[in-house]
Amino acid sequence: xxxxxxxxxxxxxxxxxxxxxxxxxxxxxxxxxxxxxxxxxxxxxxxxxxxxxxxxxxxxxxxxxxxxxxxxxxxxxxxxxxxxxxxxxxxxxxxxxxxxxxxxxxxxxxxxxxxxxxxxxxxxxxxxxxxxxxxxxxxxxxxxxxxxxxxxxxxxxxxxxxxxxxxxxxxxxxxxxxxxxxxxxxxxxxxxxxxxxxxxxxxxxxxxxxxxxxxxxxxxxxxxxxxxxxxxxxxxxxxxxxxxxxxxxxxxxxxxxxxxxxxxxxxxxxxxxxxxxxxxxxxxxxxxxxxxxxxxxxxxxxxxxxxxxxxxxxxxxxxxxx
Amino acid sequence: xxxxxxxxxxxxxxxxxxxxxxxxxxxxxxxxxxxxxxxxxxxxxxxxxxxxxxxxxxxxxxxxxxxxxxxxxxxxxxxxxxxxxxxxxxxxxxxxxxxxxxxxxxxxxxxxxxxxxxxxxxxxxxxxxxxxxxxxxxxxxxxxxxxxxxxxxxxxxxxxxxxxxxxxxxxxxxxxxxxxxxxxxxxxxxxxxxxxxxxxxxxxxxxxxxxxxxxxxxxxxxxxxxxxxxxxxxxxxxxxxxxxxxxxxxxxxxxxxxxxxxxxxxxxxxxxxxxxxxxxxxxxxxxxxxxxxxxxxxxxxxxxxxxxxxxxxxxxxxxxxxxxxxxxxxxxxxxxxxxxxxxxxxxxxxxxxxxxxxxxxxxxxxxxxxxxxxxxxxxxxxxxxxxxxxxxxxxxxxxxxxxxxxxxxxxxxxxxxxxxxxxxxxxxxxxxxxx
Lengths: 322, 435
Description:
By secondary structure, chain A is mainly α. Chain A is built from 16 helices and two strands. In chain A, helix 5 packs parallel to helix 9.
């Protein structure tokens, strides 16, 4: 149904300029344009090579050394990687924690973001106010948010556990308990779900109303309309949120660093805080570089998996239109 | 829609991933290149790095001004770095070959000395005819590595007992003294504990529970062999006593009870809020409490058990390998740690000066800003029995091992013995004994 509906909205016009760009000989004007292009892009390229690509390549070398950042690095081959994979329980614990965090916080944030966007897309009173309020948490500095969360999550005086107590539930000690500290940090991540909402809302606004009118005539109710029109139409944005969310959650740092420092007993230790600690507290730069490459591999694999599955559920309008 | 699709192109995404991952890697790689601007052209221009906030800035700048007045040929630039980022900042400065000339160091001094990033000061000390032990007491050579001195003590305050006079008077309990044994402390704390008020603030931080360890005849690291000894009976008994205050005798708030009081609540804040009657901490609470008219408080030296022992918390001044004129740098350090300049540390409410002569002078004992007759003599009295904390090169890793290994203990779900056994074996793999 989704594809059938999308048919008339095809945009063949976007194809034309691409074909024109393949012409072998450039006109004078085109050449000048190309020069200008490189001129304007050069700060970014230079910045990328000097500050990102260079250090990236350097870190491959450093990951093969024993280096304290003060004295000359000593080449040790793949010893850092072997120790990471075979003899470092804290690395595995942190990796597990990071997967746990990503696996729960990303779908949860996306689900809440989608739900909020759908609500705000309706004609409700104070819609603009709600939109502002939902985006507001993104603008609050993470340090301030973390401090508030410490109060909210206090074992007996915290509002959250007091709320649970109303239903006769004894809430856990949240940040102090190894079993509940990860859910607590996930709660903090969900606090920022409004960022996804704004993007989704923009996409929902772009869905032609004819689709809904046609669906209504066909007798589709609001739920059917959501799953058959709204959802397929915003899947590119959901996919975007998924990829960004995955990368972001694997790089979670500030929440952990401020709320728990990875404690108790590494129950909330994640990859980037671990890497930071090895590099800047323990002066194991080589080892930390190895961790960063393991993190890179983990993110790359998950992103590739997401891209592989994307064909099955992400819907691009111009791919069905010819 | 077309715009969004462009952003969704595969290549764009892979670049995005690359960027994101690279961001992580630069975190580790930035140690190689970037550094602060320092070093100075002329050899008598010195950069001095310290950590802290506004109070520290005023205190250090005041002392530098005195130094420059006395030795006009010296030019000293103060580099104040926020405490939390100080190690990283100094690390990158040194790695970039632009380390500060004079740098403030503390417990992690031997990270630098063991890797020859700061220079041994013995020859400067002897040519300046300084007697470190006479000038600074037991902490005189606390910043040493393999029998060489790497930093001159600058600030050094022993951990001290703060007690709430109103609460003590209400129960008719005599003020705590250095003669108290653990049992005296426990019975006082038990009596002082009433609903919502605890007798004692706790001892989870290393200078606190290590003090009990050394009082009990134990040691974290054996000074002769350099090996960890945290599973010895003396250490286990001392730690268990600290934990029992919380879970058995219930005279100390648990972590959950602290979390209930507010965010980032600990003994210092709870004492100021009059929720606990006795607290061990450093000098830093004196200034705050002196400015608070609502609380009646005083100071006492820490109690004892088998012997007297207390941890000191302070910092020293070292000279980095990048310093082009170590003679000038040492001249500056010698002046800054001498009585005249050290007095500023207390007059500006910053800390306890390491210099014993200043600790025993009226400048320290009766500071002009003090509003009440507080027993400041507790600090110089404690200086006499400060134990030498093992500032090993693997200091941060050792601290992390304790934090991780004692997490369950401080939550009351594990006993001291198994926790310390596990930490002992972990420390044995972390610490390479100095030959």
